[in-house]
From TrEMBL:
Alphabetized InterPro entries for the sequence: Cellulose/chitin-bd_N, GlcNAc_Chitin_IntDeg, Ig_E-set
The entry's keywords: Monooxygenase, Oxidoreductase, Signal
Originating organism: Streptomyces qinzhouensis
Chitin-binding type-4 domain segment(s): 29-194
Protein name as annotated: Lytic polysaccharide monooxygenase
Gene3D superfamilies: chitin-binding protein cbp21
PANTHER family for the chain: CHITIN-BINDING TYPE-4 DOMAIN-CONTAINING PROTEIN (PTHR34823:SF1), GLCNAC-BINDING PROTEIN A (PTHR34823)
CDD domains in the record: LPMO_AA10
Length: 196
């Protein structure tokens, strides 16, 4: 009797996982590994108390069209997704940073777990005077991306790398990476705390 009950619970659990995955809300997609993103820091346990993003660092998906559309101010790092609101918490400016050299070339690395047809990858950086103790808004960002990598609808591989020259900045900043999907209404968002 106990084995039959355990088997029934397992079957129900597997059916739930299958349904959850088939609905699209738990499917993997992608995140930035270099410079390391907030969701990756949570996923590998460097930063604790991150909520659901600890198990889904690849799932920060929101409406595309940033900065004209997309996630609301204060919810940009979580892609406007309330399940991942811990990514928008500035944590009093204590997110770990990656050291970068302004004006030098950097290779950005994305880990892709679901290969969507892609319009482009774009990178925005905060303006001089950015306050890392407050939630990110569009007003904090330079109006134009400092790097855009067109993809023309091609599906990326499991790892995407592209190089670009970093902006002339100094001090602590935030880089917002946006992976725009070509065949849906969504994009993937990632925030990387950096020190120039």
């Amino acid at each position: 009797m106990r084995n039959r009950f355990t088997a029934s619970l397992l079957a129900v659990g597997l059916a739930g996982v299958t349904l959850f995955t088939a609905s699209g809300s738990a499917q993997g997609h992608g995140y930035v590994d270099s410079p390391i993103s907030r969701q990756q820091l949570c996923g590998i346990g460097t930063v604790l108390n991150c909520g659901q993003i600890e198990w889904e660092p690849w799932s920060v998906e929101g409406l595309k069209g940033f900065p004209q559309r997309g996630p609301a101010d204060g919810t940009i790092c979580a892609g406007g997704n309330g399940r991942f609101s811990e990514l928008d918490d500035p944590r009093a400016g204590s997110w770990p940073t990656t050291r970068l050299t302004a004006g030098r070339e950097h290779t950005f690395v994305w880990r892709i777990t679901a290969k969507h047809a892609t319009t482009d990858f774009r990178y925005f950086v905060t303006k001089d005077g950015y306050n890392p103790t407050k939630k990110l808004t569009r007003a904090d960002l330079e109006p134009q991306p400092f790097l855009t990598v067109p993809f023309g609808g091609v599906r990326p591989g499991a790892t995407v790398t592209h190089s670009g020259v970093l902006p002339q900045k100094s001090g602590r900043h935030l880089i917002v990476g946006v992976w725009t999907v070509a065949d849906t209404d969504n994009a993937f968002y990632t925030c990387s705390d950096v020190q120039f």
